[in-house]
Specification:
The protein is of the alpha+beta class. 48% of the residues lie in helices and 11% in strands. It contains 18 helices and 9 strands. The strands form 2 sheets. Strands 1, 2, 3, 4, 5, 6 and 7 form a 7-stranded mixed sheet that branches. The chain has a two-stranded antiparallel sheet with strand order 8-9. It is elongated, with a radius of gyration of 29 Å.
Length: 424
Amino acid sequence: MREDFLHFIWKFRLYTKELYTTDGEELIVIHPGQHNADAGPDFTNAQIRLGKTLWAGNTEIHVKSSEWYVHGHHTDNAYSNIILHVVYEHDRSVYDRNGREVPTLELKGKFSESIFQKYFYYLNNKNWIPCEKDIHYLSIEKVNIWLNSLLIGRMERKAANLRSLLEHNKNNFEETFYQVLAGNFGFKINEQPFRMLAAVLPLQILGKHKNSLMQIEALLFGSAGLLNADFQDEYPRALKKEFEFLRNKYQLVPVQGHLWKFMRLRPPNFPTIRIAQFAALVHKSQRLFMKIIETDGIAGLIELFDVEASSYWDNHFVFDKPSEGSTKKLGKEAIQNLLLNTVVQMLFLYSLEKADERYQEKAVEFLMQIEPESNSIIKGWKAVGIDAKNAFESQALIELKNNYCSQKKCLHCSIGLDLLKMNS
């Protein structure tokens, strides 16, 4: 038996109707109380009737009564207001620090064992998700209600994680957006050096050269530590010369060029191409975050991010090495990735900081217009019969898989709870 399972039984009242304490006193549960996830008693503000007396207070739950002493509750003042000790097996009478015997309810034999058998199965099977053989018993409406809740929680959590960066930037949303966008331009493999690049090259400096794409490229490639070679081509030589002047002017300290990863990347994803595309975006869109705030509809967002690297890169993937000619536009998948991981997150943060739900609603609308991710998790959900139609649903399904299914948190999952209660 597990204590978290007993919490589930108590919280949802999945026990027999006629209850008696271990002393034979009739017990009526008026309200099980509020589940407490912090330190202290397991449930607070419970209401019960013992015999003819109405009690209000806290309840504590253990597998065995003797765990009361193992956990030191008999000397802890926080457990002096326990009105009921709920256990699976009563093996010892317990007393609080005032010497008062705590009434005890033994749950063994008072609920359907099939519920625990199903829970045990969920905990121990090797399926892709614990309930994959049962989830089809739930209506899609019930599943979607839970997914909606997960998505909002996920977005708020991620946005809140960005708050420290916003505070570091003295609540400058444009600078914060620039830094987050830069990191996401690295697309995981080069995320860290891109973040470092944005840290050593503030947006304010780039803004002073907003009318010159060449100077923006020089600042970005130079600060990235990628202009240190003796180049043959005129373009990188010009960038290097320009950067040396700007470096001294702004006292810039470049990141180390060896941090950028090229191995196991397709050439269109090389950091040189991404930096050139990033330069084009910075050059094209001044005050980009404010433009996003003012943009309605996914088409307008895609237009903002519709950029291509400068002409040198039409026949290069790295400096001094010609390649077959092709424009290096920021692709549809890359744009959707940036919208999902940068635009939506920053809109949620903006909504939280400004206490204005309009921007949260706008972010949700964008999510519903962005195509779902195509990865192993989304393919796994499709295999069990749940097919994401948009990024809103795919993000929720990723949250469900990673933070509930993979961690076997069935008792904290609305889907798991509903399926378990079917066995009661």
